[in-house]
Fold this sequence. Notes:
This protein has helices at 30-38, 42-48, 86-101, 122-137, 166-191, 199-212, 223-229, 232-238, 292-307, 352-363, 379-385, 397-410, 443-452, 483-494; strands at 2-6, 17-23, 27-28, 59-63, 72-77, 107-110, 156-160, 216-221, 246-253, 262-266, 268-272, 312-322, 333-336, 342-345, 370-375, 390-394, 414-416, 434-435, 460-464, 470-471, 477-478. The chain is of the alpha/beta class and 498 residues long.
Amino acid sequence: MKFTAKSEKPAAVKAGCVVLGVYERRKLSEAASQFDKTTRGLLTGLLKEGDMDGKCGQTLLLHHPHGARCERVLLVGCGKKNEFNATRYRDAVASAADVVNRSGASDAISYLPGLELRGRDTYWKVRQLVEVSIAVLYKPDELKSKKDKISRPLRRIAANVDSNDAEIAHKALNDGEAIAAGIQLARTLGDLPGNICTPTYLAEQARTLAAGHKQIKVSVLDKAAMKKLGMGALLSVARGSEEPARLISLEYHGGREGAKPVVLVGKGVTFDSGGISIKPSSAMDEMKYDMCGAASVLGTLKACAEMKLPLNVVGVIPATENLPSGNASKPGDIVTSMSGQTIEVLNTDAEGRLILCDALSYCEKFDPEVVVDIATLTGACVIALGSHAAGLLSNDDKLAEELLNAGTTAADRAWHMPLWEEYQQQLDSNFADMANIGGREAGTITAACFLSRYAKDYRWAHLDIAGVAWKQGKNKGATGRPVALLTQFLLDRCGNSR
Ligand code: BES
Ligand code: MN
Ligand code: ZN
């Protein structure tokens, strides 16, 4: 898909499709109203006849509108004007992209960035146009031999902006494409099945990413190297699998030499069967998504590199499978982590924290400015927050606030949960320094409490993405979340230096 910015009158522009917003109760947006005037009331006429009301999600496609120069015009419902918000803007953009793509138009010009949106500027609206359009048009059909091909798909989308905003629009298009590429990488990796996307495959992907961007360096540790470092927790998870575990590090150097990096740690369990504490078989296939934290780290680094952000960022990915076997960890086993703390593995299905704790200790070697880990860590988080917000827990309220704000800006939100010391005692063990589970209550919090014990020496935040990383049901598939949040967090940290 190619994206451009234009400043044209809606009825005068030549295009395969002109996209215009309509609010509920048949209220035309400014561009739609201009179009209506030039076409002598074409739109008001149709709306009066009841073809459309302007409710969210409604669309109406007209062909060869008389008095205009385009081949088609698509009206998109935006809901009540005074309720229009960021989510509805994204929904409007999404339905437009989908309908236009199936309409036969190969190019479109969207006037949706001209819609008034409190607290959001042209940069945001144009960037979202790119991110959302690319996201809806992606179908996870890489492994289907027959793809549902559209004979004349949409190839070019122009964002119409005020001519004074041309420069800002270009920046928004570039950033949007970079972020969308990062999101797409995370989605494709997430959707790949466990037999293809193994720890070795993730390491290859990291190498490919580094090969394409000279500011990225990669290193991959194997079992022997991890053993030397004393990563007994991580290696205990890998014991049951024939696929070798990997610890992948990527260093993106966009900032000053010596500037402390932001370190992103992504859970890379390429398949989580639960191990000996095996999961029920229904929907177990979805545990191929247990590496979505890792995928979001790769996606974010890709976006960073493509935007050439003036920052240093490190990605750390502990990657393994979690399977049962004669060699697998057993409930009750006690392992020693890299930090020296011992862990009683009461449930082998609480494996994410076991691989993350060693990765968090490993991070210290990068002398981090802050560390953010991203993990499909607990089913409890899905119960608490559903699929709209990631869980956010942190040992630093300022860092938490930065991440929350980034999520709101990027329309990829998180919600702050408490990490009070009262919860820590749920991890007490009779036989080791801690247990790897904290009982039925507050499962997301006790998982974060566990991690906090390995993140004492730096400012740290944890994103539990169990509810947001993929969608179930008819449109089952990875979402690429929270690449947008993380990228925004990094963009915001660049301040005015870009
Ligand atoms: N990967 C799962 C968490 C998960 C489950 C994410 C379902 C999304 C949907 C994680 O490794 C896990 O199994 N967690 C356990 C922890 C429990 C044993 C304390 C869980 O949430 O049940
Ligand atoms: Mn598990
Ligand atoms: Zn898991």
